[in-house]
Fold this sequence. Notes:
The strands form two sheets. The chain has an eight-stranded mixed sheet with strand order 5-2-1-6-7-8-9-10, sandwiched between helices. A two-stranded antiparallel ribbon has the order 3-4. Helix 11 packs antiparallel against helix 12. It is an alpha/beta fold. The N and C termini lie far apart (40 Å). It contains 15 helices and ten strands. The model has no long low-confidence stretch (mean pLDDT 94). The protein has two domains: 6-184, NAD(P)-binding Rossmann-like Domain (Rossmann fold, 3-Layer(aba) Sandwich); 188-329, Orthogonal Bundle (N-(1-d-carboxylethyl)-l-norvaline Dehydrogenase, domain 2), CATH 1.10.1040.10.
Amino acid sequence: MQYKNKKNLNISILGAGSWGGTLACLLSKKGISVNLWTPNKEEYLAIKNTKTLTKPKKYKINKNIHITMDLKSVVDNSNILVIAVPTNAFKDVINKLKVLKIKKNVILLSATKGITTDDHKRPSKIMKEVLPNNPIAVLSGPNIALDVISNTPIISVIASKNIKAAKLLQEMFSSEYFRIYTNNDVIGVESAGALKNVIAIAAGISDGLGFSISTKAALISRGLIEIAKVTVKEGGKPKTLLSAAGIGDLIATCCSTNSRNYRVGYALAKGKKLETILKELGQVAEGVETVKSMVSLAKKYKLDLPIANSVYKVLVHGKNTKSVLKDLMNRPLIGHELDF
């Protein structure tokens, strides 16, 4: 795979939500032309007519962003496809790319953080199964969309087994305020990025109940251990959890009030119903579905994940947050802190 003239690369982003729109803006500010695809006609017309993105905030787009609904044209004319759709829509989009006969040298970059609810697959696994001949990579890290689009200094990670693809994407997305590192542990980077959303819901609940920073620190530290248990069983490297895509992303998502998953947990602690919270949020909070996969993977690998199980009880069974917390704190004591 050789892409000597980077200026002639055609980049398209599939998904015009908060993260897809943010990435499009990041590239456009570097003078890079980017196609932004949405399957939603209402969203398409709104962006086309107003030249404005509304998520994560109102943002006037420049001439380098081209909004479209024509997926076939995007597939036929792109060298790089960034998939930034919700996790449970990911497989459908990848299958469409196969039907549209995507070229083998097109790089696929997943910007989706989650695990599918039905078969518990990470996005990279779906891409590898459906489009095995395309170079694949994943983007993950402590990247709250609103922070990225607001030009605060931020780092992120692009993971790929294909070194050339990783280096190309690193150069493409790095900017004055957005520094990219590379990693070859796709499973570790991707698992950490998905599972931290579950712990972020727990962190939101903790703050919503009025607990201290010490409580949140406990959740983050024990939550990282639960993430590590699953990640290692899935084939990821433990040291990846020390990276920006591991502990960095976990801290950001557990501490930022701009984190959708944190906001879900906070509102639950204040007594709101999940259905109401998600409706008011107006966007996908990946942890709400990922917790189901996390608990299922724990059963598969015979892992003890008390925080994930507690979040599952609140989200799926509608248990009271205070009673679940009481059960969590009064579990039988374990013999060693690092029990994996």
